[in-house]
Write a structure and sequence with these properties.
InterPro entries: CheY-like_superfamily (IPR011006), NreC/VraR/RcsB-like_REC (IPR058245), Sig_transdc_resp-reg_C-effctor (IPR016032), Sig_transdc_resp-reg_receiver (IPR001789), Tscrpt_reg_LuxR_C (IPR000792), WalR-like (IPR039420). About 55% of the residues lie in helices and about 15% in strands. The chain is elongated, with a radius of gyration of 23 Å. A hairpin with a 2-residue loop joins strand 4 and strand 5. By secondary structure, it is an alpha/beta fold. The protein contains ten helices and eight strands. The longest helix has 15 residues. The relative contact order is 0.10.
Length: about 200
């Protein structure tokens, strides 16, 4: 028998999941929680095989709860079950140690099969999530700006001129230009506006 706990802030969702899972002869829902911290406490008390974890809940982030559960409950596997499939959500969950990432539009059969696969130690990803991870792996890493280049671009983004930036950082205007030109090269852009836009898009400033 595979023992599960459900962590989701919506009682209706937990009720529906319990009904779907307990219709399977080899699955048993042994506990529920409505927040990340409560999920950590319930997992520590009941020591389940699988935790089905929502990501975004009032009073506690599912990613943080996942990391804490995996650090404190030996042998447990956490499956994220959420409506969110943004790149950031997926990567944070996987980096925290989640053994799978499923969307709430999964069918009852898909969910039950995913739980069994996770219990066997397999990684379970919905097709769209798997595609996102492949795209992330194939994408080139963002350019590495130096601390000073980042600082200069941040000030450019605030509307400061090269002379203003020089005074703010106690460097010459020529040095500001040098930092900007290096940043342009790394970001593969030709002007200040494009540099700031690209750096912001990459999360560098």
């Amino acid at each position: 028998m595979i023992r599960l706990i459900l962590v989701d802030d919506h009682p209706v969702v937990r009720h529906g999941l319990r009904g779907m899972l307990e219709a399977e002869p080899d699955l048993a829902v042994v506990g529920e929680a409505s927040s990340g911290p409560e999920g950590v406490a319930v997992a520590a008390e009941l020591r389940p095989d699988i935790v089905l974890m929502d990501l975004r809940m009032p009073g506690g982030d599912g990613v943080e709860a996942t990391a804490r559960i995996l650090a404190t409950v030996p042998g447990v596997r956490v499956l994220v079950l959420t409506t969110y499939e943004t790149d950031r959500d997926i990567l944070r969950a996987i980096e925290a140690g989640a053994g799978g990432y499923l969307l709430k539009d999964a069918s009852p059969a898909e969910l039950a099969d995913a739980v069994r696969a996770a219990a066997r130690g397999e990684t379970v990803l919905s097709p769209s999530v798997a595609s996102t991870l492949v795209r992330q792996v194939r994408s080139p890493a963002p350019p590495a700006l130096s601390a000073r280049e980042t600082e200069v671009l941040r000030l450019v983004g605030q509307g400061l001129t090269n002379a203003d930036i020089g005074r703010a950082l106690f460097i010459t205007e020529a040095t500001v230009k040098t930092h900007l030109l290096r940043a342009f090269t790394k970001l593969d852009v030709a002007d200040r506006t494009a540099a700031v836009t690209r750096a912001m898009g990459l999360g560098l400033i």
